[in-house]
Each structure stands twice: as C-alpha cells, then as structure tokens.
C-alpha cells in the first residue's frame, strides 16, 4: 500500500507545474499592476509637514514610473492613527498606501487605549523612506552648555526643568522619557499641539529644553537663538560638526532617529510589494528628491521590506518598554 504522504511522479510534476503557474501569474500581475488605476497615498498628518511634503514628491515621481495617477490623501488626527486605520481597512491590492512616520507604528499603540488596527499584523512593510535626527536644544538665555550640565541641574532640583514636545506619545516626548530613564533625572513634560509651538516656546524660554527635528532647529542654532547640546543620531551632523552625539556627550545607547516609511495593507500580494519597493526606491534616487530631502533634514534610506519590518518591530519593542517603564498608561 502506498504511503499517503508519498508523492507519485505524476502528482509531483502536477504540483510543480501549479506552483510555477502561480509564480508566473504573480509576476504577470505585478507587471500589469496597477492597470491604470489610481493609487492613494495616505499621509496621517496635516499638509505641510515633512511627511506630507516628501510623500507628495514621491507620489509625483511614481506618477511617471507607474504610468498612473498617485494622489495624496491627508488623514490627520490622533497622532497619526486615524490615517493608519484607514489603510489597515483598505483592500489589499496595492492601491492604498500609508506614508507615515514612526509614531502610528511603534509608539501610539502603547499610549492609546483602543486602536482599530494592529501595527504589525495589519500592515505589510514596503520600504524605508528615510531617517530624521533630532537636536537636544536649549534657548539662548539658558545657562546650560552641555548635556551633563542640564542633567546635573535636573538632579539637583527634580522637575524644575521643563521640556517641550509636540504632544503626549510623540517621538519628542519619548526622547525626554528615555533621557530620564538613562540618567535618573526628573523633568517636567509640557506637551503642545504639534512640533511648531513646542519649538516656539523653547525659543521664547517658556521651557528649558526640547528635542527638535534637526532641520527645524538648525536655522535657529545657526543664528544663536538656540544652543544645540547634542544630536541624537549615531554620527555628528555635517552642518553642525562641533555638536556631539549623545554618546559622545557621555550618554551611551542613546541613538534616536525618527523614520518615515511606506506600508501597504496586510495580504497585499508579494509581487506588488516588490514592484512598489523597486519603484519607490528608484524615486528616492532622483536628484529632485535627494535635494528636497536635504532641505528637510532627512537622510534617504530605501532598502528591503524585510529590513523595514525589522526596524519597525525593534522600535515597537524599544518604545513599548520606555513607555511601560515611565508608567504611562494607555488613554
């Protein structure tokens, strides 16, 4: 009697033919996709921010690369989770994409009580767009010249120094929490409705310090209105070669870079993901996008969906631990 788990030569050939046909269909589908259909690029933030500006530039490049129309749909609110939920519910056909930052994927799930999506299970990673370093800055009237001086003052008088962020649960907020946990200092967190008012009140001296995206802070550092104590990236910034990294300032294992990336709904066919990865990667190499990214203070990245998936999961775990250790409860 034949073992039911043993393939006959005929059944083996049939199975092989079926797999080959399936693979060929997937390749053909990716080549034919999007078939002239409009692609919607969802930005979960208001128009005018770096995620929106860069997303629109990429969409314009994709118009030509994919021979179809790519429209940007701004769905702001709830720290980016409204737009993310919109994509999570969309058809998995590669026609709805999420151009987002780190927040909705790695931070918001830990600080918001009820999300209508799973940041890992409901999305297929496509490609990393780029990374944005931040500067730890103080206003010109503040006495601190180094991070060590700032920490020493905070330890001497806990919660006497206030830092601004663009809102509870944002990456600017999380860096302040991380600094507390790394140093044992205690600060007063002052959340604002967006990065711009946080920057404005840091300039005005209403708060003592803040972590601000490098591109936004740089002009004020160059005029002397802000003093940069450190940069959060692994390497110094060419434009501020005299400003140390956090590690060089004496705080090891403090490397934080806000990232922007593209995701599709889970179950989007792998050949379509591969096509998107290739064409968005080509867009990121265009001279126009390279120049725009430099203006925005973004280091363009690219890379594979698998690399983005690893980064997303690592940051999800990293910031989840920071939030739990800070005692922040989902609201």
UniProtKB/TrEMBL annotation:
Coiled-coil positions: none
Signal sequence segment: 1-29
Keyword list, A-Z: Signal
SUPFAM superfamilies in the record: Periplasmic binding protein-like II
Pfam families: TctC
NCBIfam families given in the database record: TAT_signal_seq
PANTHER family cross-referenced by the UniProt entry: BLR1237 PROTEIN, TRICARBOXYLATE-BINDING PROTEIN
Family of this protein: Belongs to the UPF0065 (bug) family.
Protein name: Uncharacterized protein
Upper taxonomic lineage: Bacteria, Pseudomonadati, Pseudomonadota, Betaproteobacteria, Burkholderiales
